[in-house]
C-alpha cells in the first residue's frame, strides 16, 4: 500500500509492503458457467433460501444470477440431513432444482450432484442427506435454479424468467 499525503506545506509518501492481506480460505472454486435471466417477468425466481444456517432473502428473478457463495456459507456433517427450503414467486408454480458440487471441480453433475428436483410447485422443500463421498473442509458450491415450468434443464441453462443463486457448504468429517 502506498499513501501519499499533500497539503500547503508539501507532500510525503509512505510505503507499506504486504500491509493488506487477502484471506482465501473461504473462497469457492469458480463455476464453469453463470446462467443469465433472459427476460424477467411475473415474479418468477427465488425469494428466499433456507438451508442449515443459511437464511437469505432476495428480490427474485429481477436480480438475475446471484453468487452468494462467499458471503452465505454453512457447515454440515456427513450422514446428517438438512432441510432445503426455497421460497419462490407467489403467482406461478415453478421448476426448482438444486445441485452441490461434491467433488469441487466447478462442474455440476446432473446425476450424482442433483439434490432437489421439484417440478411445477410453489415453495419447494426437501431433506438433503450429506453423502460420505464428498470433498471435506472446503467450501463447495451449491446452486439453486428456479424458473417457469418446463425450463430448468441443467445447472448451466439460462433462465427464461427466473434465476440462479449460488451458495456454499463446508462438510465436516
Please outline what is shown here.
This protein has 173 residues and is mainly beta. It is 0% helix and 45% strand. It is globular.
Query: What is the end-to-end distance?
Result: 39 Å
Oligomer: single chain
Our Rg estimate from Cα atoms comes to: 20 Å
Per DSSP, what share of the residues sits in E-state strands of 2 or more residues? 35-45%
Number of helices: 0
Question: What is the string of helix and strand elements?
Answer: EEEEEEEEEEEE
Number of strands: 12
Which key features would you list for this structure?
single chain; 173 residues; mainly beta; six-stranded mixed beta sheet; four-stranded antiparallel beta sheet
Explain how this protein is built:
By secondary structure, the chain is an all-beta fold. Helix content is 0%, strand content 45%. It contains no helices and twelve strands. The protein has strands spanning 2-7, 10-15, 46-51, 54-57, 66-67, 73-77, 81-88, 94-100, 114-121, 125-129, 139-148, 163-172. The strands form three sheets. Strands 5, 6, 8, 9, 11 and 12 form a six-stranded mixed β-sheet that branches. A four-stranded antiparallel β-sheet has the order 4-3-7-10, with no helix packed on it. The protein is globular and about 70 Å long. The mean pLDDT is 92.
Topology:
Layout (H helix, E strand, L loop, with lengths): L1 E6 L2 E6 L30 E6 L2 E4 L8 E2 L5 E5 L3 E8 L5 E7 L13 E8 L3 E5 L9 E10 L14 E10 L1
Parallel strand pairs: 5-12, 6-12
Antiparallel strand pairs: 1-2, 3-4, 3-7, 7-10, 8-9, 8-11, 11-12
Amino acid at each position: 500500500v502506498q499513501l501519499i499525503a499533500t497539503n500547503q506545506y508539501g507532500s510525503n509518501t509512505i510505503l507499506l509492503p504486504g500491509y493488506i492481506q487477502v484471506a482465501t480460505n473461504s473462497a469457492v472454486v469458480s463455476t464453469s458457467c453463470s446462467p443469465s435471466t433472459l427476460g424477467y417477468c411475473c415474479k418468477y425466481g427465488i425469494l428466499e433460501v433456507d438451508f442449515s444456517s443459511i437464511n437469505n432473502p432476495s428480490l427474485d428473478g429481477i436480480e438475475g444470477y446471484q453468487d452468494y457463495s462467499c458471503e452465505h456459507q454453512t457447515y454440515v456433517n456427513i450422514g446428517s440431513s438438512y432441510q432445503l427450503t426455497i421460497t419462490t414467486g407467489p403467482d406461478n408454480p415453478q421448476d426448482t432444482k438444486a445441485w452441490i458440487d461434491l467433488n469441487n471441480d466447478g462442474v455440476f453433475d446432473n446425476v450424482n450432484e442433483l439434490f432437489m428436483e421439484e417440478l411445477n410447485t410453489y415453495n419447494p422443500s426437501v431433506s438433503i442427506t450429506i453423502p460420505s463421498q464428498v470433498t471435506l473442509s472446503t467450501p463447495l458450491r451449491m446452486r439453486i435454479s428456479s424458473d417457469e415450468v418446463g425450463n430448468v434443464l441443467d445447472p448451466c441453462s439460462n433462465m427464461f424468467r427466473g434465476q440462479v443463486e449460488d451458495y456454499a457448504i463446508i462438510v465436516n468429517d
